[in-house]
Design goal:
This protein is an alpha+beta fold. The protein has one domain. It has 1 helix and 6 strands; from the N terminus they run αββββββ. Strand 5 and strand 6 form a beta hairpin.
Length: about 140
């Protein structure tokens, strides 16, 4: 009696199912740092637009303090009084950069017209703030 060598159909299907499950779990982990960095940049854009809107709405300067690891919104350059949400009164959260994202430390403010104080186009990561208009993109 000759016995055929090789794998049965059931063994092949089971192997493919297990490989598919492992791939579905493992592959997204390779892209996670890129996803976190992209999401952080979107949060920075939203924070800058929020700071600009608050400066115009409250007719006062709102400072953006960028350190090497985070972005804060404050009513003074020393960040002693953080920007608060007018509806809830809660302090606006600091945006902390994920691992692998480095920021150039800088401090600037939006005036009551929504224009940045620096007089030059600002770049925070991949986010740009136009000098004349304060447009954030």
């Amino acid at each position: 009696m000759n016995r055929a060598r090789g794998f049965s159909l059931m063994e092949l299907i089971l192997t493919l199912v297990i490989a598919g499950i492992l791939a579905a779990i493992a592959i997204p982990q390779f892209n996670q740092p890129e996803i976190e960095a992209s999401w952080f940049q979107e949060q920075v854009k939203a924070a800058l637009r929020y700071a600009q809107r608050q400066a115009v709405a409250q007719r006062r300067a709102v400072y953006v303090v960028v350190s090497a690891t985070d972005v804060q919104l404050c009513y003074d350059a020393a960040c002693a009084s953080p920007v608060s949400d007018l509806a809830t009164g809660a302090a606006y959260r600091t945006k902390t950069a994920p691992t692998g994202v480095a920021l150039a430390p800088q401090t600037f403010s939006f005036n009551s017209l929504g224009q940045p104080s620096s007089g030059a186009t600002l770049v925070i990561g991949t986010t740009t703030v136009e000098a004349d208009t304060g447009y954030v993109h």
